[in-house]
């Protein structure tokens, strides 16, 4: 499978990297936290590590470490605006349950 970005998400990432002035892509990972166990981590990447998996989607490189890939494989990242709120939305087919606040999930 792969990690994909919608056109809106890709545009947002490209614009942010351009404003930042450097970067090769977006790291997508998970960390242990929250009431449901796992939370998503997004950060901009300046250098890809040898052990990273790299996916290309709508002109953006999405970099995922091997540990995280088991939890996020098949995920589509979207960028949404709802009223005054905006941010990434994760469409992850592996999620079995998430907490009420939306900060964490489990598989």
Task: Sum this structure up briefly.
With 107 residues, the protein is α/β, with parallel strands linked by helices. The chain is 20% helix and 45% strand.
Task: Describe, in plain words, how this protein is organized in 3D.
With 107 residues, the chain is of the alpha/beta class. 20% of the residues lie in helices and 45% in strands. It has 2 helices and 9 strands. It has a 4-stranded mixed sheet with strand order 3-2-5-4. Strands 1-6-7 form a 3-stranded mixed sheet. Strand 2 (25-33) and strand 3 form a beta hairpin. The chain is globular and about 35 Å long. The two termini are 17 Å apart.
Topology overview:
Elements (H helix, E strand, L loop, with lengths): L3 E2 L1 H14 L4 E9 L3 E9 L7 E5 L2 E5 L1 H7 L3 E7 L2 E7 L5 E2 L6 E2 L1
Structural key phrases:
single chain; 107 residues; alpha/beta; four-stranded mixed β-sheet; 2 helices; globular
So what's the overall shape? globular
Elements, N to C (H/E): EHEEEEHEEEE
Helix content: 10-25%
- The separation of the N and C termini measures 17 Å
Overall pLDDT, averaged? 88
Total number of beta strands? 9
By helix and strand content, what is the structural category? Answer: alpha/beta
Number of helices: 2
| Regions with little confidence, pLDDT below 50 for 5+ residues | none
Strand order of the largest sheet: 3-2-5-4
In angstroms, what is the radius of gyration? 14 Å
**Main sheet overview:** 4 strands, mixed
Strand percentage, roughly? Answer: 35-45%
